[in-house]
Amino acid sequence: MSSGEDTKTPKTPAGGDLDEQALFFHRYPRPGKLEIQATKPLGNQRDLALAYSPGVAAPCLAIRDDPSMAAEYTARANLVAVVSNGSAVLGLGNIGPLASKPVMEGKAVLFKKFAGIDVFDIEIDAPEISRMVDVISALEPTFGGINLEDIKAPECFEVERQLRAKMDIPVFHDDQHGTAIIVAAAILNGLELAGKDIAKAKIVTSGAGAAALACLNLLVELGARRENIWVHDLEGLVYEGREVLMDEWKSIYAQKSDNRVLADSIANADVFLGLSAAGVLKPELLVQMADKPLIMALANPNPEIMPSLARAARPDAMICTGRSDFPNQVNNVLCFPYIFRGALDCGARTINEEMKMAAVRAIAGLAREEPSDVAARAYSEETPIFGPDYLIPSPFDQRLILRIAPAVAKAAADSGVAARPITDFDAYLDQLNRFVFRSGFIMKPIFTLAKAAEKKRVIFSEGEDERVLRAAQVLLEEGTALPILIGRPQIIESRLKRYGLRIRPETDFEVINPESDRRFKDYVDQYLSLVGRLGVIPEAARTIVRTNYTVIGAIALKRGEADALICGLEGRYSRHLRDIAQIIGKRPGALDFSAMSLLISQHGATFFTDTFVTFNPTSEEIAQKTIMAAEEIKRFGITPRAALVSHSNFGSRESESASKMRRAMEFVRELAPDLEADGEMHGESAISQVLRKRVMPSTTLHEDANLLVFPNLDAANITFGVVKSMIDGLHVGPILLGAALPAHILSPSVTSRGVVNMAALAVVEASHPV
Ligand SMILES: NC(=O)C1=CN([C@@H]2O[C@H](COP(=O)(O)OP(=O)(O)OC[C@H]3O[C@@H](n4cnc5c(N)ncnc54)[C@H](OP(=O)(O)O)[C@@H]3O)[C@@H](O)[C@H]2O)C=CC1
Ligand SMILES: CC(=O)C(=O)O
Ligand SMILES: [Mg+2]
């Protein structure tokens, strides 16, 4: 069998040649960018009988009797065809269907990555309209939607018109409508920033093809005036009476004018809209444009003018391209995954004007919200804030799906084209949130409990950190916690402004200023009372209380000025743990602290312990770590099932660590007889009932383990790290167990969503202590 995989992958080409790197990227480790994955197991005879003959006959007959059942028994409702005949591939022209395949595979990947939509890319050898319509319309039984891509004008207009009339599923020409939606959003925002009215704006295009004309049609719907629009193509200006290269779609914009070329029309233009070819806009023309012009050079891969040239000619311009390597990426990727998400989720029969307008408003509105930290990282340096260099959201903004899909689904229902209208938008948003934040599903019970609880104060040691500031805003907005931030108020204030966050110190949340807090003397006294006999002299205590923010947070928690502590975004775990141990201490009866890490993946939730604290725990300590972990897991609404893992499988080895785990298991049975657990066993046995039962038919672990308890820190920490990296899992934690009060030491790689997750857990611990 050939998987096409190249086992001898050469080294990635060094140096900056993007073409060479792109060829390498597409070729290795296996050709192309896609594969198909089964969503049902096919591991044994029974699976085969269900998935294939004879079982498969049942869904076939159900669909024959009621075609709507295809949405229940097949992948159709989430399956889109990306179809091209290769006649206008990016700005590369008519390179044919086969050469268009990398672009179509790319669109498929974007659908999947950004909106979870499955795609078959379909490149068809069909230059003529009638053949395209025949081939594409015959695909209706397979797909929930059709995304036409890179089909040239004017044929694309007729193809789309005929398909929309023939087919009962959404047909959407991405280069027309996806581009128009995002261009309209950017123009609305750009004109607002320039203080201009769309009804008076002069718009000059280079391009009179699929993308340009669809953009203009939508802009006219939004208030632009035909008389202010000047369209140019290979022949120059589209004017009344022109006969060469004209068609009924272009002639709508024909001007009564003696102008003939772009240079004649560009004077006083407020917007240049380039959807044509590389390099057609010369810098010297830009000086004629109006004040604060909007220059949209959107041809791909190379724009009508490079941003550096445009900026040099017009420092006051707002500049957009279709590329990801410059600010203001105006590209239909910001639209097509999400408009289809909304359309598929409500069973829309078409994508109509109302749904497109809803998408425009959602995208334009999102740019004015605070940027997310993921979007900020995608721009790599400065956090973008709504303004000339940030007219529209980044393609990596995870909120695109959360804003566009519900707006589109609502517009579909309101305009009567939704076969399965969404009735509970809160539940729908929850579902989208779970797609965006993989932790969402597992964390839901924690957030529900945290929001229902009396408000708890969570103190953050690294209160100046961007991730904490973003998390604080989310916690306040969602009503999950009352944050207290340790940090210098002027730094916090200026960073909040820089990141475009709305919350403000003292008005919205409390700040402890380590440089001048009035409680400083009390804190030092309290600290000395705890550590004075551990070799810390008063002078050192004063310095520590001024400079060690985890110490400040722990003292505030101990004094009852906060209900939970979050630290660890900087510095070593052991240092934070030492401070928590000295100031907060262990909960009564705890032999030691323990750390549990939750790994979320497509396999669900798996908890690992002890990943950060005790190097070589005793049997008693391991038993206690298991029981503390199990108690914590119940907070997630999950029934804990523990496996004490080892190199020994149910007594197969007699080493010291194997018998340590066996003894630990005996303690667990004694101390927590109701806990479903077993051990010692191999890691594979823990997660495979078949393997486990083969060796130990009487095992007391009836389902696969979701809590893996390790014999020592090396095993736990290394296994967790390797598994997390290999399966690209999401880490929630580490969750500190055994402290007298809720306190968690995160890791420096945590994201702001990770901080929010752990703060919510800490609130639940504070409201429901064990
Ligand atoms: N950023 C984005 O999201 C998107 C960008 N695009 C880009 O827009 C461009 C056009 O795509 P699309 O509309 O689908 O293709 P079409 O083939 O439908 O249209 C191309 C248009 O550009 C005109 N044109 C070509 N070369 C020149 C030139 N040198 N000077 C002036 N006009 C020229 C053509 O003129 P004529 O009519 O005379 O043949 C035609 O009107 C491509 O570069 C594509 O990559 C497209 C979609 C989305
Ligand atoms: C982005 C896109 O669809 C194009 O350039 O054709
Ligand atoms: Mg395209």
From TrEMBL:
NADP(+) binds at residues 89-96. The keyword Metal-binding applies. A divalent metal cation binds at residues 149-150, 175, 300. InterPro entries: Aminoacid_DH-like_N_sf (IPR046346), Malate_Decarboxylase (IPR051674), Malic_enzyme_CS (IPR015884), Malic_N_dom (IPR012301), Malic_N_dom_sf (IPR037062), Malic_NAD-bd (IPR012302), Malic_NAD-bd_bact_type (IPR045213), ME_PTA (IPR012188). Residues 176-413 form the Malic enzyme NAD-binding domain. It comes from Ferranicluibacter rubi. This is NADP-dependent malic enzyme. Its cofactor is Mg(2+); Mn(2+).
